[in-house]
Amino acid sequence: MKSMLKSELAREAGVSVKTLNNWCKPYEKQLTRLDWRPRMRFLPPNIVTFMVEKFCIDID
Fold first, then answer.
1. Prediction pTM value
2. Is it the case that residue 38 has pLDDT exceeding 90?
3. Sign of the CA dihedral 20, 55, 44, 46?
4. What is the pLDDT of residue 60?
Protein backbone atom coordinates (compact mmCIF):
# COMPACT_ATOMS: atom_id res chain seq x y z
CA MET A 1 0.00 0.00 0.00
CA LYS A 2 1.23 3.52 -0.70
CA SER A 3 0.91 6.80 1.17
CA MET A 4 -2.06 8.97 0.20
CA LEU A 5 -3.64 12.29 0.92
CA LYS A 6 -6.76 11.96 3.01
CA SER A 7 -8.71 13.65 0.20
CA GLU A 8 -7.50 11.01 -2.29
CA LEU A 9 -8.60 8.19 0.00
CA ALA A 10 -11.98 9.86 0.53
CA ARG A 11 -12.40 10.21 -3.25
CA GLU A 12 -11.60 6.51 -3.73
CA ALA A 13 -14.25 5.70 -1.10
CA GLY A 14 -16.75 7.97 -2.85
CA VAL A 15 -17.26 10.20 0.19
CA SER A 16 -16.14 13.59 1.47
CA VAL A 17 -13.20 14.06 3.82
CA LYS A 18 -15.68 15.01 6.55
CA THR A 19 -17.50 11.70 6.11
CA LEU A 20 -14.21 9.78 6.15
CA ASN A 21 -13.31 11.53 9.42
CA ASN A 22 -16.70 10.56 10.85
CA TRP A 23 -16.07 6.93 9.87
CA CYS A 24 -12.76 7.07 11.77
CA LYS A 25 -14.26 8.25 15.06
CA PRO A 26 -15.17 4.75 16.37
CA TYR A 27 -11.62 3.57 15.58
CA GLU A 28 -9.71 6.50 17.11
CA LYS A 29 -7.91 4.37 19.70
CA GLN A 30 -6.70 1.89 17.08
CA LEU A 31 -5.71 4.65 14.67
CA THR A 32 -3.91 6.59 17.42
CA ARG A 33 -1.73 3.53 18.01
CA LEU A 34 -0.75 3.84 14.33
CA ASP A 35 0.27 7.50 14.91
CA TRP A 36 -2.87 8.92 13.32
CA ARG A 37 -4.13 12.38 14.20
CA PRO A 38 -7.60 13.67 13.21
CA ARG A 39 -6.19 16.65 11.29
CA MET A 40 -3.66 14.64 9.28
CA ARG A 41 -3.73 15.41 5.57
CA PHE A 42 -1.06 12.94 4.47
CA LEU A 43 -1.65 9.32 5.50
CA PRO A 44 1.25 6.86 5.76
CA PRO A 45 0.93 3.36 4.26
CA ASN A 46 0.05 1.63 7.56
CA ILE A 47 -2.93 3.94 8.13
CA VAL A 48 -4.07 3.68 4.51
CA THR A 49 -3.97 -0.11 4.79
CA PHE A 50 -6.01 -0.03 8.01
CA MET A 51 -8.68 2.24 6.50
CA VAL A 52 -8.88 0.34 3.22
CA GLU A 53 -9.43 -2.94 5.06
CA LYS A 54 -11.76 -1.55 7.75
CA PHE A 55 -13.97 0.46 5.37
CA CYS A 56 -13.76 -1.91 2.36
CA ILE A 57 -12.35 0.74 0.03
CA ASP A 58 -11.26 -0.50 -3.38
CA ILE A 59 -8.00 1.18 -4.38
CA ASP A 60 -7.16 0.81 -8.08
1. 0.89
2. no
3. positive
4. 74
